[in-house]
Amino acid sequence: MAKYRLKLDTRTNIKRALTRISNMVLNGQIDSKAANTIILACNAMLSVLKQEDGMSIFEIDGGNNTMRNSRQYKIQSLLRMAEITDNEAKRKEWLEEAEKLVFQDVPKEIINKVLEESK
Question: Where do the domains of the chain lie?
Fold first, then answer.
């Protein structure tokens, strides 16, 4: 059986991979079970890329409950992404962004007090 390499690092490459896999299934070069596995991997990568794009452009100013819930969701998403990534630079970036959101509405005096107590 021939070995194939698929790049799943950009949306364009994922689209190409999906097209290639679809054609391989139609031509009988790959069974549908293997194709389904690859399609699931492509969907997972698209989800990760979507989250990465969304996390780099959001800004929240605090405010009402809807905004706070949205901020809580974004903090949880950032922490989840930092937990699952293998990219150390991205992990650090996401953790720093989550930290900014966590301490956004907390007065600096309280933050300093907590930091001093933890030393």
Answer: 1-50, 58-119
